[in-house]
Specification:
Methylamine Dehydrogenase, Chain H, five-stranded antiparallel β-sheet, 1% helix, mainly beta
Length: 337
């Protein structure tokens, strides 16, 4: 089911979301279909499709082109437990998912058709996050079992074979994993309330089994999400302690603590140009921050707690997913501009 305002879609000429026009941000549309809360939202690399993952065990693909009505294209039901995470590769040809059934599933995307290519069951506990590296070589997953697995999938589609390296220094659940834009670094977020940084620029992923990380951030409670800025300058971490911390990769130091959320910060996302940081949380708000000035710009209330947030790769839209299973798509209102 799709809900939208009465304004004609064809009249919406998209504007890239920036700090200068953020005051004109409004809800373009929202989509319903999931029967439980959303755990993750992402866009396809061409920004044409919105992909949602839910506690209801399904992944849904939506047509997110704003010149036509938003419709559900696919509902993938292969997971037999909650789906925690979805990720699209940089070519837009693969989709990965991970969930409470302790499996990673890789889907092939071909001309609007989606089919499962391979199922990987190398974790022992629920999988909280899956991420493709920007260079397309790796697929990472983080789990309740405290392991982060890095798979070299360079030849996956032709041979269905891959090698796996393991980052195993965590002693508790690993909630999130993020690649730097150059695919050289991985950041991991865990229940240990710290962020670890790993160098994964290796010839063979098996070398990662002996890699030692650097501890770069200490929160007062567990860390839910980590994200690199598109230019690689910043690493942001979002925590149950209600704060967001910014680490400068060049200076190798923490440069800001963003306060404002009144409850756990569930998810964060940088805009494609790196000028904005979006955050959502259990306090039922979407907040947008000026990265350069390190200050809050706007806060928008939702009816339910908000669990996930992402920007479209073209920068025109922002999507959030909440506890009622609703995904909201945000854009810039031309009339206000």
């Amino acid at each position: 089911m799709v809900m939208a305002d009465s304004q004609n879609y064809s009249s919406r000429i998209a504007h890239i979301i920036t700090p200068n026009n953020i005051y004109a941000l409004y809800e373009v549309a929202h989509v319903k279909g999931h029967t439980s809360w959303l755990r993750d939202v992402t866009f396809s690399r061409d920004s044409q499709y919105l992909i949602t993952a839910s506690n209801d065990k399904t992944i849904r693909l939506w047509d997110a082109r704003m010149n036509r009505q938003i419709e559900q294209i696919e509902c993938l039901k292969d997971h037999y437990a909650a789906v925690w995470s979805v990720s699209a590769n940089y070519k837009g040809t693969l989709l990965a998912s991970g969930g409470s059934d302790a499996t990673v599933r890789i889907w092939a995307l071909q001309r609007g058709d989606v089919y499962q290519h391979i199922e990987i069951a190398d974790h022992n506990e629920p999988i909280y996050d899956v991420e493709f590296s920007p260079n397309g070589r790796y697929l990472a997953s983080s789990s309740h079992d405290g392991m982060v697995r890095i798979r070299d999938i360079s030849n996956l589609m032709t041979t269905s074979r891959f090698r796996t390296g393991i980052l195993s220094s965590h002693i508790s659940h690993v909630y999130d994993v993020a690649f730097s834009p150059d695919s050289q670094w991985i950041a991991t977020a865990s229940r240990e309330s710290i962020v670890r940084l790993w160098n994964v620029h290796v010839h063979n992923v098996l070398q990662l089994n002996t890699t030692k990380p650097r501890q770069i951030a200490l929160h007062a409670s567990w860390v839910n999400h980590v994200e690199f800025s598109p230019n690689g300058q910043y690493l942001a971490s979002a925590s149950h302690d209600t704060t967001i911390r910014l680490w400068d990769m060049k200076q190798q130091q923490e440069v800001a603590i963003l306060n404002g959320h009144r409850d756990s910060v569930s998810s964060i996302a940088f805009s494609p140009d790196g000028r904005l940081l979006a955050s959502v949380g259990k306090d039922k708000t979407l907040r947008l921050w000026n990265v350069q000035e390190k200050r809050l710009l706007i806060s928008i209330e939702d009816e339910e707690w908000v669990n996930c947030v992402t920007f479209s790769p073209n920068g025109y839209y922002l999507a959030t997913g909440n506890g009622a299973g609703i995904a909201r798509i945000w854009g810039i209102n031309r009339d206000i501009l």
